[in-house]
Amino acid sequence: MAPDRSEPLFLKLRRPNIRFLFLAIIIGGLAGYGAVLFKLILKYMQWVFYRNTGDWLTFAATVPLWMKIAMPVAGGLVVGLVVSFFASEAKGHGVPEVMQAIALRGGRIRKRVAAAKIFASAVTIGSGGSVGREGPMVQIGASIGSSVGQIFKIPRVHMKTMVGCGAAAGIAATFNAPIAGVLFALEIIIGDFGVMQFSPVVLSSVMATAISRYYFGDFPHFNIPAYSIVSLWEYLFYPVLGVITGLVALSFTNTLYWLEDRFDALPVPDWSKPALGGVVLGGIFAVWPQVFGVGYGAMNAALIDQTPFQLMFVLIFVKIAASSVTLGSGGSGGIFAPSLFMGCMTGGAFGHVVHWLLPAYTATPGAYALVAMGGLVAGTTYAPITAILIIFEMTSDYSIILPLMLTCITATVMNSTIQRASIYTTKLLRRGIDIEAGRERHLLSHMLVKEVMVRDFVTIPRTMTLTSIIWTFKTQNAPYLHVVDEEDRLTGIISFRDLRAVLNEEGLGDLLIAEDLATKNPVTVTTDDTLQDALDRITDRGVSQLPVLSTGREPRLVGTLTELAIDAAYNSATVKAEIAEDEERMAS
Questions:
Q1: pTM
Q2: Is-annotated flag, keyword Oxidoreductase (predicted)?
């Protein structure tokens, strides 16, 4: 009998690919149970605040006015204290924090973030905050993935896959949508569809979905109207719907960050700001109970055509205000569900109009509401594939795919043309983090001009004659001459190209001086500017080098920076980064 040459299981698990798949299953399981725990805590928090765990619309009329205002204030106060004194990452909608952790910290997220996010988001939503639960679950899942990666000492280069596994599991478990969870993680969080990322993310998403379905069942999220294309003419309306949902999405993004700036500027302690937002929310709930919390009850009513046109139109703007106040003041929650809500009301109102105008050629308003939900998600996140698949999985209706594709792609293309950053990356840009610009910009933004500038440069007085300038070019072999005044301050710059027009003119050798020939007020950089700033100026002005000035009240010429020096610095940084990644791969 031949000896058993099969490799022991513990040795197979040491292979990187097998180990990542094994860890993906662990992350999916933990994130799945995290989603179950989050939903239970959310229900409990709503019971704590209102002594009722049902949909808000079923009991809102029985809640006294003072409670509608006092409970969001109390919830905001609790969240403000948690965010200010325990984990600042729990503030806001969560996804930008995950993207920032991948871009700047190698996917490392503090272990306390998951617990803080579960509690803060449950309190926010349970007390009435007009936000969703998917953003928190993305951050909770990502935190779990990061913690597992840190415990098992996963190399930095692979940590983003572990974080992506957690994010995918969070979306999948929250929406009962495993495919959308995978695409969300790959399209938004990781930004890579490679096999090494795809396989672990799929396993994690499937594991989390299986756990969620075990506890909550396998059923669509919404009451879906009977959907069908009534006429081919309808396909002309869906790109129009894409434009409208795109405009609403832009309004939501800009309103959110405008209000965030207003709350940030308030001269009160940060921990008290969510409570101030709660005062505004209470007033909104008293008039429009439909925007309380996640708002699935109001969406279901709109989808089955039980909401009048006027109310749906008004609720678009009310939801923008309520969600922006919740998040802008410092509350914790996601933007996915608010986007779905706004899309539902936008599409429903649009459907009422086109069905009233052309009843024989259009479907019912509920069909347009369903499609617009995806359009608005795509218009805010700039992730059309995720938007299409999440609506498809949440509805289990394949006939909706073509209208969804038209609407989502139109909204994404239009919005990304008008405003480069999505609702997620806008928050990072406001912090000075541009993750969409690529590796080159990231590297150059972390190097300063003074690190690579050339300190050996040629200066001439502004009174030097043309003859002396030509002689200086011949003897110094300098591409540029820096013109300075009596106090050595830069007044201009001369290139040999500036002399061509006067070289053949006789009698000008002693008449023209440097001040006559120099380019006045040349574009400059300072020693503390980044190489990316310098490269942007070189590109904009079409020059090959820039004078470098010192910082301070009286800037002096201290060097020159060439495009070749920037290229050399970038190449050197790239090689160092690749060597570090190779060493981490070898260590793994």
A1: 0.74
A2: no
